[in-house]
Amino acid sequence: MEQKLAHTRFTLLLLSVLLLVFAENLARTGLSIKQATDLPNLPTSLSPVYLAVTSAFWVMAFAACLFGVSRLNPWAPKFTIAVSVAYEVNLWLNRLAFGRSSEALATTGFRLILTLVFLSIVAGTLAWPGTRRLFADAKGYLEWLKKREIGD
How far apart, in Å, are the Cα atoms of 114 and each of 3, 100, 108? Predict the structure, then answer.
């Protein structure tokens, strides 16, 4: 049982996508804070403070996903799927509630494609048999370590 568990190409793809979404939200947080402080009276359809707060929340959520998947924690697959779906629901609710420009309607199809690709990558990589086996092996390894610690 003393083997080293290595990430598969699929988990590396997943980590890359999660890192991109993490970085996007981190940048959005910073830009929203800057906009709220530098241009407080700028009329926007969505408050920069609201964007900063929600983006900061998603930064923390995707940081947890990155940590869990990178460490092959048993809770990571379900948590990552839940966070990804909740993130997309939040984006669509914001779009439907606050997207009043003509560009919002014109880009809806592209946004739908991005949503489907993102959720397909997340769910697909986590449902892939090799990825599921990797997380199961990691869980077995953790259980083996606990038994070994108890026995010492």
Answer: 38, 20, 10
Tens-place pLDDT, residues 66-91: 999 999 999 999 999 999 999 999 99
In a domain, 72, yes or no: yes
Q: What is the DSSP letter of 1?
A: -
CB count, 10 Å around CB of 38? 9
Assess contact for 10 and 130: CB atoms under 8 A: yes
Q: Which domain holds residue 127?
A: 9-151
What's the structural domain count of the chain? 1
Q: Which two tokens stand for residue 128?
A: 């892939």
**Cβ(81)–Cβ(126) below 8 Å:** yes
Q: What pTM does this model have? A: 0.85
Tell me which amino acid residue 107 is.
T
Q: What is the pLDDT of residues 23-46, one digit of tens each?
A: 999 999 999 999 888 877 777 667
